[in-house]
Design brief:
Low-confidence stretches: none
CATH topology: 60s Ribosomal Protein L30, Chain: A
CATH architecture: 2-Layer Sandwich
Structural class: alpha+beta
Helix content: 25-40%
Shape: globular
Largest sheet: 6 strands, mixed
CATH superfamily: RutC-like
Strand order of the largest sheet: 1-2-3-6-4-5
Mean pLDDT: 97
Radius of gyration: 14 Å
């Protein structure tokens, strides 16, 4: 089976699809000036767009890893996450406090989904 890669760069691809599974690179907000809710909305919109390109959607998430810079932002991030997620389709998930690559980023998400 072949591997299909999307938005391939020298360092990473934004997404790879293999054997019916879609793997996304970490998604971050394009506008780092927004608060945790705004950045979370941007990240989830980017995830939606990538999943659509692979022919799948958020109802088929297999796993989500969330990296957040300040645990005080955890409730705000969860509020947006829960509003976005279809009822009955919550994937296994981990959330950890982390220092992200750019100081303005508050949240980064890595998801895997069935195609």
């Amino acid at each position: 089976m072949s591997i299909q890669r999307f938005d391939v760069g020298t360092r990473l691809s934004e997404m790879a699809v293999h054997n019916g599974v879609c793997y996304l690179a970490g998604q971050v907000a394009a506008d780092g000036t927004q608060d945790i809710r705004g950045q979370t909305r941007q990240v989830l919109a980017a995830i939606d767009a990538l999943l659509a390109r692979a022919g799948t959607d958020k109802s088929r998430l297999l796993m989500c890893q969330i990296f957040i810079t300040d645990l005080a932002d955890f409730p705000g991030m969860n509020e947006v996450w829960e509003a976005w997620l279809p009822a009955g389709h919550a994937p296994p998930r981990a959330t950890v406090k982390a220092q992200l690559a750019k100081p303005e980023w508050k949240v980064e998400m890595v998801v895997t989904a069935a195609v």
